[in-house]
From TrEMBL, chain A:
Residues 1-31 are annotated as: Disordered. This is Serine/threonine protein kinase. It comes from Streptomyces malaysiensis. GO terms for molecular function: protein serine/threonine kinase activity. Keywords: Kinase, Serine/threonine-protein kinase, Transferase. It comes from the Bacteria. SUPFAM superfamilies: ATPase domain of HSP90 chaperone/DNA topoisomerase II/histidine kinase. Gene3D superfamilies: Histidine kinase-like ATPase, C-terminal domain (3.30.565.10). Residues 37-153 form the Histidine kinase/HSP90-like ATPase domain.
Automatic annotation (TrEMBL), chain B:
It comes from Streptomyces malaysiensis subsp. samsunensis. Keywords: Phosphoprotein. Residues 164-275 form the STAS domain. This is STAS domain-containing protein. Signal peptide: none annotated. InterPro entries: Bact_StressResp_Reg, RsbRD_N_dom, STAS_dom, STAS_dom_sf.
Length: 159, 292
């Protein structure tokens, strides 16, 4: 169902300060992905999180789009799951945003094939997983037939 | 059913039949008093509700149905509670106020029973019975209330979906659909239906789909856009996608989606210029935009 309110203006006009030394990063938060509307909530939450971390507009769009792809995969192929947002720091103190997308679905049988552009087991375009990998800095998948799928992606804030 | 429960049922039935008026008064009074109804449901309406509820409650009490199923399985009674909650949901009362209003009936009923007997045993048995009877009604009203609200939300989003996809005529034989929000399967369906119909009605040659108001273009949205473009082309018209912002363009490219077969423009103005070129007509200032 189409719901309005996923505002682009809010993020574009956002002048919120990036996380500074004295501001503690928000606690990790987990969102369910059980319905089509949940995808909207996830995009909303991720958009807010990218603004919180201090990403620019292009990176905001990248991360939200990657989140949208992965959450949709969990919803369509995994029969629903969860998205967890974390605010990590790398050893050099660089801030980032990490998404952990988990489902208890049938798992990915051939991961290499799934990462290939144009490969799809459903009716999609087959760019979701590979596209998400290109949109993010770090990308790991833990999956196996019957084991469900966990995708962990991270985008770091450029210095 | 134990003999004491049978006695309680009989007592309540009699109270409702003989003192119905009084109980209704008290109930309405309680609801007004508790200021539970921050709505425009008036006293007359509350009386009507009470009358309908009591009328259905009597056969419910007289039936042999176990107490915790009386409300849900007595036909008229179930409807009366559902109707009451629906009206409150529509009038904007809170769910708490709605179930509390139903539960306030306990007090009104007990008061009436108290007029008939002072026997502690009997009063206690009546109170326990009424609790079991009406807690179910309270829960049912809460549930119905939530369903009522969800129904309203569903209807509103349906309305929003249709309102937010207007097809506007920008130029002779040029139509535009400014998309706002997200583009999922249901939305695509509505957009496509409206757009294709408008193309036929206006004998349009170019349709512009503007995605300025679409915050996220992922592969699913891109796929829906391509479907729309294909459908427009099948009608013999051309389709231009406008409002491709820099951040969206980068993201689409990185995702690996190939939109090169589709005419895209950054702004609606550029798209209109392109459309006018396509239909081979003079521009708004009379300048020839087709470069012949």
């Amino acid at each position: 169902m189409a719901l309005p309110g996923e505002s682009i203006l809010a993020s574009r006009g956002a002048k919120r300060p990036a996380l500074t030394e004295d501001r503690r990063p928000p606690a990790p938060a987990t969102y369910p992905v059980r319905t089509e509307e949940d995808l909207l909530s996830v995009r909303h939450a991720v958009r807010a999180a990218t603004v919180e971390v201090g990403f620019g507009l292009v990176d905001q769009t990248r991360v939200v789009t990657a989140a949208s792809e992965l959450a949709r995969n969990a919803f369509v192929h995994g029969g629903g799951g969860t998205v967890t947002l974390e605010y990590p720091r790398d050893p050099r103190g660089r801030r980032g945003l990490r998404l952990i997308v988990k489902d208890e679905g049938p798992g990915i049988v051939d991961l290499d094939a799934a990462l290939t552009d144009g490969f799809t087991t459903g009716a999609g375009l087959g760019h979701g997983l590979g596209g998400a990998r290109r949109l993010m800095d770090e990308f790991t998948v833990r999956t196996g037939p019957g084991e469900g799928t966990v995708v962990v992606v991270t985008r770091w804030l450029a210095w | 059913m134990s003999t004491s429960e049978a006695a309680v049922r009989e007592r309540l039935t009699r109270a409702l039949q003989e003192r119905g008026e009084e109980i209704a008064d008290r109930w309405v009074e309680l609801q007004m008093e508790q200021a539970l109804l921050d709505t425009d449901i008036g006293e007359a309406e509350l009386r009507e509700e009470a009358d309908a509820l009591f009328e259905a409650l009597v056969p419910g009490l007289q039936s042999g149905v176990p107490v915790d199923r009386v409300v849900t399985s007595t036909p008229g009674l179930h409807e009366a509670v559902v109707g009451l909650s629906m009206r409150r949901a529509r009038a904007g009362a809170t769910p708490t106020a709605t179930s509390l209003a139903v539960l306030a009936l306990k007090e009104a009923l007990l008061k009436a029973v108290q007029r008939d007997t002072r026997d502690a045993e009997e009063l206690f048995a009546s109170a326990v019975f009424m609790n079991r009877l009406l807690d179910v009604a309270g829960a049912l009203s809460f549930e119905t209330y939530v369903e009522g609200r969800e129904e309203i939300i569903r209807r509103q989003s349906q309305q929003l979906m249709e309102q937010s996809t207007p097809v506007v005529r920008l130029w002779r034989q040029v139509l535009a659909v400014p998309l706002i929000g997200t583009l999922d399967t249901a939305r695509t369906q509505v957009v496509m239906e409206n757009l294709l119909q408008a193309i036929q009605d206006h004998e349009a040659l170019v349709a512009i789909v503007d995605i300025t108001g679409v915050p996220t273009v992922d592969t699913a949205v891109a796929q829906h856009l391509m479907q729309t473009v294909n459908a427009v082309r099948l009608m013999g018209a051309d389709c231009v996608i406008s409002g491709v912002r820099p951040s969206i363009a980068q993201t689409i490219a990185q995702l690996g989606i190939d939109l090169s077969t589709i005419l895209t423009r950054g702004t609606l103005a550029d798209a209109l210029a392109a459309a006018i070129k396509l239909i081979d007509g003079p521009g708004p200032d009379g300048d020839e935009g087709d470069g012949r």
